[in-house]
Amino acid sequence: MASVIRWMAGSWLTAAILVMGFSAPAFAKFESGPWTGSAYASNSGKFERCVMTSEHPNGMRLGFGRSVDGAFEIWLLNKAWELQPNTAQHVTLWVDGGAKRTGDFQVVSRDAMAAQFGADGAALAEALKRGNVLHVTTATQAIDFKLTGTFKAIGELDQCWSQSASGAPATAKPTKPAAGAAKPAGPAKRAKGMDLLALSPRDFAGQVVTSGKPGFFTVPENLPEAMRKWNAALLWNVTDGMGLATGVGSNPDAEALRDNLVQQKKPKCKGEMTSSADARALPGTAIQVKRVEIRCSDIGDGKGVTEVFAFYPHLSGQLLVISHVANDRKVAAAADEEFAKRVIAILTAK
Prior knowledge:
With about 350 residues, this protein is of the alpha+beta class. The chain folds into two domains: about 5-165, Invasion associated locus B (IalB) protein (Immunoglobulin-like); about 195-345, Protein Transport Mog1p, Chain A (3-Layer(aba) Sandwich). About 25% of the residues lie in helices and about 35% in strands. The protein is built from seven helices and 17 strands. Strands 1, 2, 3, 4, 5, 6, 7, 8, 9, 10 and 11 form an eleven-stranded mixed β-sheet that branches. It has a six-stranded antiparallel β-sheet with strand order 12-13-17-16-15-14, with helices on both faces. Strand 16 (about 305-315) and strand 17 form a beta hairpin. The longest helix is centred in the last third of the chain and has 19 residues, at about 330-345. The chain starts with a strand and ends with a helix.
C-alpha cells in the first residue's frame, strides 16, 4: 500500500490571489515545450513568485510555482469552475505509482486553487520532473495530467526563481553599470554561521567571493550583461576560468544530479564526455556538499573544458548551485576548493 503524506494549507495564498489573476506585473517570461511561465511582482515591483502552466483536456490547466522564499506550489485552474474563494478543497495527489499526498488546496478565485508544499516540496518536484502522470482526486472529480516536458520545464521554473529572487530577472533590459557598482558586496550585514545558507543564490555567492583574500575571485565590469548571457544569479572570474551561481528547487542524490547534468551538457559536447560525482563533508561542520564534475574533450573549437558543480544545502531544503568552468581542469578544481574554504570560514566564524 502506498504511503500517504499530509500537508497543511497556510496563509501564503492571500497575496497570491492577484498574482494568479494575472493582474500583477510579469517581468520575466519563459516557455518550455507546452509550458509557459512568468515571474510575477506586486504592484510595487517586489518579486512574489514564478508560475508556469500548461493546457490539458476539458479546460484544465495545471500549474507549478515557486514562491519568493522558494517553496514549491501546485496550481489547478479551470475557467468552467465556480469555486468559493477563501475556502479549502480536500485533494489527494500522486505521481505514477508513488506516495500519495493528501491535504487542502486553498481556493484563490472562482476558477483556481493551489497548495504550497514545505519540506516535502523538493521530493515532489523531483517526482514531477521524472514522472509520467500526475493523478489528482478531489471531492467531485478525478483528473490525470500527463507530465509532458516537466523535466526541462521545472528546471526553467527554478531558473526563473533563482534569477528573480536574486534581483536579476532574465528579461531585464541591459543597463550600463554605474561607476563603482560592478562588485557586489552581498547584503549590508555579512552573514555568519548557518545564516549564510538562508541567503538567495546571488547573496550567498556574493558573500563568499568577496570574503577572504582579494584577487582570487573578481567580478566582471559588465556584470548585468554577463549574468544574462550565462543565465546566472551571479558570475565571477577566476584565472583562465569563471564561476557561476544558480539555484535548484530539488535535492536529489549526487548520482541523480550527475545524470541530469550529463543530459543537459551532452548536446554541446562535440568530443568525448566523462563525468564523476561524490559528496564531501565540510570540515568543522555537519554539512555535506554534493559535487559533480563534467569533462568534455572538445566543445566545438578544438578545446576541452571542465565544469565542477558544488551543491550547497539551502535552509529551505533546496540547493545552492555553484559551478566553476575552465579549459584546464586544475583551474576549475582549485576554484571549487577555494570557494568551499571560504564557505567553511563563514560557517565556522565565531
